Predict the structure.
Amino acid sequence: MNQFTTRQIEIMEAATNRISKFGIQNLTIKTLAEDIGLSEPALYRHFKSKNEILLSLLEYFKTEMKTRIESIVFKPTDTAGDKLRAIFNSQLQTFTNKPAIVSVIFAESIFHFDESLSNKVSEIMDMMQVYVNTNIEEGQKNGAYNKLIGSSTLTTIIIGGMRMTVLKWKLSKHKSNLVKDGKTVLKGILKMIEK
């Protein structure tokens, strides 16, 4: 399910644009087909359903996120905190550039009816958790972070704080500065844990 055709990517981009403009509840095969000038039957040749489009969008984002985060180049002088800031900066910048993906990831209220969609969102969250937890463990091991709080609890605090920041940005209809607000939250948390 990882290799998408050019047409499928085009359909996913159009779905993303529609979600950005009108919200996820206004994504239908009919409106999507109109957006890209395809007939509904033609669109169904590429995706069996709206859910399959959403699932593909999430998979596409997950693959992109993994590649993007794992290709961040760190300097030998970078601290654990610098690395964590770089990871979140990359993530928040991507959300700012593609706000619709946030609408899809944060739509779990409508996904609880669809296990495959909620599982895909969980995979994305789990991946982020691994990146953060690995950073915390390394930082605690090499003395960059204090050990007052266990790594998994700290991971939950950091991701929870960032999630809240993203949600507030989403609810403000993207009027706030997500990257700036995220940096401020992370800076506050790092102040508490960096030695």
